[in-house]
Structures are given as structure tokens and as C-alpha cells.
Amino acid sequence: MIIRSKSFLPSTAVLELTYRCNHNCIFCSCPWFSEDSGFEALQELDTSQWKSVLDELCRCGVSSLAFTGGEALLRDDCLELLEYASSLTVDKTETVDGSLTTCEVHPEIYLLSNGYPVNIEVLEILARLNIRLSLSLPGLSTYEKHTGYDHADMVLKIFRQASGMGISSTVNSTVTALNLHELRETLSAALLAGAGQLLMNRFLPGGRGLQDTSRLDLSENQVLEMLSIADDVLTRAGRYGNLGTEIPLCVLNKVELKTLEAGTRCSAARGSLLSDHQVMSGYATTRRKGSIIF
Ligand code: SF4
User: Which residues share a beta bridge with 102?
Assistant: First the structure.
């Protein structure tokens, strides 16, 4: 029997709902925060347009939807869009025991946030809809230096609340030359507070980060230190984690990782049109906010 995928699209789409953000992260790679990126910021999509996008993605077999921004929760309709996405179904095609199968499922939904707009009402909705929460924590004592706000304790409190409510959560940490010295403490605090897993990014120049590259960029030795620390923390904690930004092969070959998953290829381009199903690189933008990143 031949099973055809619904489309050539990959299984995951990252939905950038808004340009707006309540933080001023010095490492932020959003192109609209760079003065000379040439990015043309036009009007954001409205609620009904976003619902049409969600309909179309699910119709095309995209089974994982990650809502982000900017800060997605600054949009008044963010929770409405999360509810709407949760109500949709998608024909998910995947390999099970060596065979391709297709079944109708609700999409997996992720909400990426800096935490500030997350309150009990938001957490109750995430718990009811089984939405996974990813919170940014770029340091403890250096949190304010990186974001402009002193919210590290607030983020740790949300991890504790989410854990108590049964919400799956991820600590999302960008590592720079300014916060590497407390990486072990940062990751440990998040995992102890209840974060289920780690998504770590090494600083890559882009967006607002272009202005501070010389202060934030990691040397090769610092990248190796970052990998070793994260791997050790995850191994001791028995948690899963991966690196979202690629590492040159010649650097990655110098460290032995037991738990942390790290790759040498840009995750946005992995399997570009070469794998047998699901994965493709691409960046589709409506030229209006939002962008849809595969
Ligand atoms: S990194 Fe995230 S939280 Fe920080 S300014 Fe950029 S969009 Fe906002």
C-alpha cells in the first residue's frame, strides 16, 4: 500500500505571531530589532488570518505548531489562537516499526515565552489543552544584564507552578560570553524548579545581537566549556536536552557528550529536500507579521 504525505511540508512550523516584546534582550536575533537589517515590518496578521494559516498548515499535515514572537502572549488573541489550534486535527504521517503510518491526531502545540505575561489563567489553559511551555532563562545574576529586567526568580516560579500543574516545560537558554560562568547554576536551577528538558542555544550574531557581538560571542574553548557543562548537568539530572544552534564538526569532535544532543548542521536546513518524508528546510514569510518558519 502506498501512503502519501499530505504535502511536502515538514512536520513542524514556528509561528511568529507578533513583533512586540516586553524584553530587550541584547542577544535577540529577531531581524526587526536590528536597525540596518533591511527587514520590512508590515502589519501583523489579524485573528481570522492566523486561523486560516492554522487551518492550512493542519490540512497540509504539519503536526507540531510552536507559537512565538516577539512575545506571543502580548497579543490579545494569543490564547484564542492556542484554543483554536488545539481544536484542529491533522493527518500525521510517521514511521512506526519501519513502516509509514498515518493517523488523525490533534497537533502538538508549544508556547515559547519569556515568562512575564504568564499567569495562573494562562497556565490553566496550557494544562487543559496539553500545551508545552518553553521559557527563556539566559542566566541568573546576569538575567537583567541580558534582558533589561530582573525576572529570573519569576521564571523559576513559573517552572514550579507549571510542574505542579502537570504542564511539560522546557528551559530555553541562550549562552553568551557574559553568562557562561553561571551556566551550571542556571540550568540546575531551572531543572530543580521543574523544567523537564533543555533547549540551549549558543549566541549567534543577528538582530539586536549584532550590536554586541564582540561582548557576547563565545570562543572555541568557551563553546567546549558550554557543551561539557550542559551535558554534565543533564546527565546528573537524568533529563533530555539539545542544542538548537549548530556546532562546527571540528569543534564538536573535541568533546564527548553523553546526554546533550548537538549537531553540526543548521537545524533549519536539516534534511533539505533529501530525506524521504516530512523534513524540509524553508522560510516562508507573508511579508506581514507573521512569519512561518519550517
Ligand atoms: S530574545 Fe525573545 S524575549 Fe528577548 S527580546 Fe527577543 S523576542 Fe523578546
Answer: 93
pTM of the model: 0.88
Tell me which amino acid residue 257 is: L
Evaluate: CB of 28 within 6 angstroms of ligand 1.
yes
Taking the CA of residue 21 as reference, the ligand 1 atom at the shortest distance is: 8
**Among 287, 290, 284, CA closest to 50:** 290
**Within the chain, which residues score under 50 in pLDDT?**
269, 271-287
DSSP code per residue over 85-103: HHH--EEEEEEETTEEEEE
Determine which helix (DSSP H) or strand (DSSP E) holds 109, and give its type and residue range.
strand 108-113
pLDDT at residue 159 in the model: 98
- Domain of residue 117 covers 12-293
Query: What is the C-alpha to C-alpha distance for residues 257 and 106, in angstroms, rounded to an integer?
Result: 34
174: CATH: 3.20.20.70
Q: How far is the CA of 22 from the centre of ligand 1 (A)?
A: 8
